[in-house]
Amino acid sequence: MPVTYAARHVLEDHISGFEATPNPHHLAILRSPVIFSVLVHAGHERDIEDALNNLEDVHVRVCGPGEWLLAGESVTADTLARQLADLGASRVSFLDQSDGRVVLSLGGPHVRGILAKCTALDLHSDAFEIGQSTNCQICHVAANLARTGQDTFEIVVMRSFAGFLFDEVCEMGKEFALTAGFA
Question: pTM, whole model, 2 decimals?
Fold first, then answer.
């Protein structure tokens, strides 16, 4: 007997009951981002980092020395895998993490106040510039945090922790009437 599965986002049930119209403080959930984990082999750090930064439609997120997350919405996983394979198997290793990670975009004039309740990072614009990213703890969950705009941050978290992190960030944002929805 054939079985048909319906693909559902892991936060589908968490998002029900939120307002349809976003407030100035809004938590947007990306529906189907493409996310790759990339590790560079010793001696190729500089040229691989330059090559990654030249990829189109991909955001490069620093995880540590010689380790990055690549996130994109308009590029396909196959296209990105081909581009990474072209860099050479002797120079770089990569893995598609798209099904195992969730991307949340948090924005608003007091976004740093919301995140200050969740993480111990200094998020002042002088210390955490646009385009900067780091692995950190957010609400006691390991995540990657990136500053993507003046008052916008993206959080990449493992799928299994996404519901907890979503609920906690929404709780921290109540003071600012934080709304949430799919991007």
Answer: 0.91
